[in-house]
Specification:
Two copies of one chain form a homodimer.
Chain A (H helix, E strand, L loop, with lengths): L11 H13 L6 E5 L6 E3 H19 L5 H10 L4 H4 L7 H20 L4 H13 L3 H20 L3 H5 L4 H14 L1 H16 L10
Antiparallel strand pairs in A: 1-2
Helix pairs in contact in A: 2-3, 2-7, 3-6, 3-7, 5-6, 6-7, 7-9, 7-10, 9-10
Chain lengths: 206, 206
């Protein structure tokens, strides 16, 4: 990274932008709980960030036609950058999720401070975190739906091996419903089908 | 994938959208020439697709403030989906790149036909391919700059081991210049610095 200081032909701000983009690429090394569809390895947060953007592009016309898609895509492109600092905490671990929320907010300040015009992107991140706009609600709903889709297409292996219960999925589905009912209908259909095929065996031992 | 047919609670179009998104996730398994900054493994096309989107978000305000960023981000999210069918062909292999161009166009028809409203995204892909709009030119310029940034931040290992010559980089930089002079200035500064530190040793044996 030090080499960037030697890039004398371009201005300071341009160098800092390139430095930020090189730093951001480390998101490729942040592993997530969910695995690729073929089960071969965990998905990483860079891949996830691309796929949720594609999900938003594909699902917005039917599920949230009034959203400002540019704003949604900016949110989804930057929403996980804080994980370079604090790592990914699975949604299923509620207490760890609550504990990391403040760390993520502090990390966001640090991450976007690296960028000359970072305040604008920091505001995008804060908007996603606060859920006060329809863009943030749709983006977060997509962010919750995407791993459910992957777990399910992958055959529910990880749900079974980790002992995830249907009630945990229903709670996520309920959260999605509060954000975007159209996406919750997709999530609920997937969860129902997963339950029918036996993805939540722990439910039988409660 | 067959399981999607059993998702009776949602409509046919919704099922086809989910099927498309599951298919698209296979882009995570398409390896590229360039490696992660730490050299540990090749970048894949899903990670690249996310990172070029982030590059566009960060660089557009200074390099192309008039572009429709939503259109640019859509292009970059879908531009490499055809590689699920035809693989990634490095920019440095000019004859293979020329040979694959028609295959990619045929693959685009097939890929976007999988989606109920796929015509709109197919048009986005065709626009990126044709370079007739400022959005396509900026998006393609970012797509060319991003791997140069990664190769360079990674210390130029791959340029050296693959015997890439400076002239090949200068040609890419010239192409970027035709698309977006502001980004070409960044590319040229990087290439100059890479040459100074000895990333193109083959040049001495011409």
């Amino acid at each position: 990274m030090e080499r960037l200081d030697g890039l004398g032909a371009v201005g300071q701000h341009a160098r800092e932008r390139l430095r930020f983009l090189a730093y951001a690429h480390e998101l490729t090394s942040v592993g997530r709980f969910v695995r690729l569809v073929d089960g071969s390895r965990p998905e990483n947060s860079a891949e996830h960030s691309w796929h949720v953007g594609l999900c938003a592009i594909v699902l917005a016309p039917s599920a949230a036609p009034a959203v400002n898609l540019e704003r949604v895509l900016k949110m989804l492109a930057v929403h996980d950058l804080v994980e370079i600092e604090v790592g990914d905490v699975p949604i299923y671990d509620k207490s760890a999720r609550a504990a990391v929320a403040e760390l993520e907010r502090a990390a966001a300040t640090e991450v976007f401070n690296r960028l000359p015009e970072g305040r604008q992107l920091h505001e995008v991140w804060i908007e996603f975190d606060a859920l006060d706009t329809q863009e943030a609600r749709f983006a977060r709903a997509v962010d919750r739906l995407q791993p459910i889709l992957l777990h399910w297409i992958g055959g529910g292996r990880l749900w079974r091996s980790a002992g995830i219960r249907r009630q945990q999925l229903d709670e996520i589905s309920q959260f999605i419903h509060e954000l975007c009912p159209e996406l919750a209908a997709l999530a609920q259909a997937i969860i129902n089908d997963a339950a029918d095929r036996g993805d939540f065996p722990e439910d039988h031992f409660q």
